Amino acid sequence: MPQITLDKTDIKILQVLQENGRLTNVELSERVALSPSPCLRRLKQLEDAGIVRQYAALLSPESVNLGLQAFIRVSISKAKDAREDFAASVRKWPEVLSCFALTGETDYLLQAFFTDMNAFSHFVLDTLLSHHGVQDAQSSFVLKEIKHTTSLPLNHLLKE
Predict the structure, then answer these.
(1) What is the rounded CA–CA span in Å between residue 142 and residue 71?
(2) Are residues 68 and 119 in the same domain?
(3) Which positions fall inside the HTH asnC-type domain (predicted)?
(4) Which of 29, 63, 109, 131 could bridge across to 39 with cysteines, CB 3.0–4.6 Å?
């Protein structure tokens, strides 16, 4: 991927897109005070450089009957093949939205959504704990979401 240096206009494009990725090029260009052709060219450069990875629709979990959100801390065998196999398996589990390798006492942190406690139990007992590399799993359930955003902070890029 090509490397690019971000200027204030690029950063503004990124900020606006993080707020609303469905804007037309004309709408985007108006919000960043740029004419449509240069705006589209800059956006294409940001995409080609991998800075803009993808566009997505963010669904409300409750509206699609996924009201139980869990964070699951997983400890696995220290063997390299167990880690690689676990990572490959996690990528195939649709319940898991995010998986992070961690430092500290826990090896991985999973964020997963379920329809109810029965679906959660089935996943943990029949999928997660049945995986050959998994040694232990501990779960916490989300009681209330205080903040959720997909927007990255970009103010540090605005060097004066």
Answers:
(1) 8
(2) yes
(3) 6-69
(4) 29
- 159 confidence band (pLDDT: 50, 70, 90): confident
**pTM as predicted:** 0.88
> CA 131, 87, 130 angle in degrees (round to 5)?
5
Q: How many domains does the chain have?
A: 2
Answer whether residue 122 is part of any domain.
yes
| 156 falls within a domain | no
Nearest partner of 66 among 108, 97, 92, 110, judged by Cα: 97
Helix axes 8-19, 36-48, angle to 10 degrees: 80
* Residue whose entry in the numeric block shows the structure tokens 């400890």: 75
| pLDDT for residue 33 is more than 70 | yes
49-67 mean pLDDT: 96
What are the Cα distances from residue 123, in Å, to 54, 75, 107, 129?
Answer: 28, 16, 19, 8
Are the beta carbons of 41 and 53 closer than 8 angstroms?
A: no
Q: And the tokens for 127?
A: 């999928």
Last residue of a domain, one of 19, 40, 57: 57
Q: Are 133 and 77 contacting, i.e. CB atoms less than 8 angstroms apart?
A: yes
Domain co-membership, 49 together with 108: no
Task: List the domain range (segments joined by +) for residue 132.
Answer: 61-141
